Amino acid sequence: MSLESDTRDRVIKLEAEVQHLKEDIAEIKAKTAAMYDILNQAKGLRLAGYLIIGSFGFAISWIPTIYNFFVSKGA
Fold first, then answer.
1. Averaged pLDDT for residues 35-49
2. Taking the complete model, does pTM exceed 0.90, yes or no?
3. Distance (Å, rounded) from C-alpha 54 to C-alpha 44?
4. How distant is the alpha carbon of residue 54 from its chain centre?
């Protein structure tokens, strides 16, 4: 096998590998775009969840204060 034909075979193999890599990158870009779109759609829901969780946390943090207020009034 001559050096020229060996080099040609390597270039052909490399071109095939590059083509597969391009296809993989295109697939990854499509999946990433889909995930990005899903996350952008959930922004409002995420904000509502934060507000609900914050409200519950605020209310729960006041339970000991309110409990002590009513217990001390009754004694």
1. 83
2. no
3. 15
4. 22
